[in-house]
Design goal:
Aminopeptidase, disordered N terminus, alpha/beta, elongated, 2 domains
Length: 431
């Protein structure tokens, strides 16, 4: 039998062409056959959809880090290189770059670096019937505030970081928001893939949103002397803004600057729009008991702390019934699958803020009724620590006189501003 590559069976020209094709296939097939992971980015304003296409199902854990803001994916039992990982080109002002490295054998880390803080409300795993890839992970990443980012660190750690490190670090969750024993990269240089759009703008300020309760056709509580709650809350919100504006790292936004009506959900939506880090709702109380007086600080709870708190929440929440507005949820956490976990963390932070305020009210000799809990509609944002402050009782002569006194209101607002600043300075989610 003759050799099928012999000169007797092939011309010199066709033989050289065949050898060239064979060489081309051998040289380049390594890149084609070795590809294990492909990353695709779908960008839209303030949102990224990251798709990880894998050649199989791997043990993969997600967590987030700040300074800079990063989403990290750790893949075990796999070692990727520039031939086995394909990252498609992307244009984004939100996602800055993607890099990867191998901290140790059979362990690859992929890092997505963002220009701004973010939350991850959804991570979907699914089988992927493709010629090259068998498994797919879709990750939704939304722009957020620094506060929401830090709240999300713990949530992501609990939800998507189920690895051996979690068991070791579980005892430290109250002190730290991310595991402390992550392996360091041993390689000299990561592989970097950067967005064509560069945006190095950094935001240092925190935003406090102050909501003056009621307004317009909704007067709120009314005293026997004809004093309207809506007027007291508006004046107090403006004074609190002045007090907070003394701090250079705090920006203040008001829900209303004049006597106008706002639905409760509109107020929360406005806070979202300005990317508020803290939500403060100001109200004035009323009671059949004329002796009832003092300042109450409320944070969200599904169960009211007392019957009076329950009735108050029902009364305040009924404000929306004066009009008839329906707002579809646009919050990614509402439509995502992490709302309960986020809301739990936010409720904890709201309660902590309430404790700071009550401590300072006592320190500055302002009469308080303590920390109470109720299901106020304006406190239900899942990623903004929120409290509602009842500044006093219009049905009590002493409180009404104080609330109409600008000097008293200024002292009260200065105290609230000091409390908010101390809370932000000492709390890990703001640092």
């Amino acid at each position: 039998m003759k050799n099928w590559l012999s000169s007797e069976t092939m011309s010199k020209d066709s033989k050289s062409k065949f050898i060239y094709i064979l060489f081309f296939f051998i040289f380049f097939s390594k890149d084609i056959l070795a590809e294990k992971v492909k990353i695709q980015i779908l960008s839209s304003p303030n949102k990224e959809n990251i798709s990880l296409n894998l050649d199989g199902s791997y043990n993969i854990n997600f967590f987030s880090l700040a300074n800079p803001y990063r989403l990290v994916a750790d893949l075990k039992k796999i070692t990727l290189n520039k031939n086995s990982l394909k990252i498609e080109k992307f244009n984004s002002i939100f996602l800055k770059k993607i890099r990867f490295g191998n901290p140790e054998k059979n362990f690859t880390r992929i890092v997505f670096e963002f220009n701004k803080p973010f939350i991850v409300p959804k991570v979907i795993h699914s089988n992927f019937n493709n010629k090259y890839f068998k498994y797919k992970i879709d990750i939704d990443v939304f722009e957020s505030t620094h506060t929401a980012f830090n709240l999300g660190k713990k949530v992501m750690y609990e939800k998507f970081g189920n690895n051996d490190v979690n068991k070791i670090s579980k005892l430290f969750l109250d002190k730290y928001l991310v595991p402390q024993t992550r392996p360091k990269l041993k390689i000299k240089k990561d592989m970097n893939f950067s967005s064509k759009i560069i945006n190095n703008k950094k935001t240092k300020n925190y935003t406090v949103f102050i909501d003056a309760g009621h307004g317009g056709k909704d007067p709120g509580a009314v005293s026997s002397n004809g004093t309207y709650e809506k007027n007291i809350t508006l004046q107090a919100s403006k004074l609190l803004k002045q007090s907070l504006s003394k701090y250079k790292d705090i920006t203040v936004n008001l829900s209303r600057n004049n006597d106008r009506y706002l639905f409760l959900r509109e107020r929360v939506k406005l806070a979202k729009k300005v990317k508020a880090d803290i939500f403060i709702s100001l109200h004035v109380d009323a009671s059949k008991n004329r002796k009832a007086r003092g300042i109450s600080v409320f944070s969200l709870s599904n169960k009211a702390s007392d019957l009076e708190a329950k009735k108050l929440a029902l009364r305040e929440n009924s404000s929306d019934l004066i009009g008839s507005l329906h707002i579809d949820h646009e919050d990614p956490l509402i439509v995502g699958n992490l709302i309960k976990m986020f809301q739990r963390e936010t409720m904890n932070q709201s309660a902590e803020l309430a404790r700071y305020i009550l401590y300072n009210l006592n320190e500055y000799a302002l009469y308080s009724r303590g920390h109470r809990f109720a299901g106020f509609a304006v406190l239900k944002s899942p990623d903004i620590p929120s409290i509602l402050i009842e500044l006093g009782f219009l049905t009590n002569k002493i409180d009404e006189k104080n609330l109409k006194n600008r000097k008293y209101l200024r002292k009260l607002c200065d105290t609230l501003a000091i409390s908010i600043k101390r809370y932000m300075k000492s709390n890990v989610i703001f640092n």
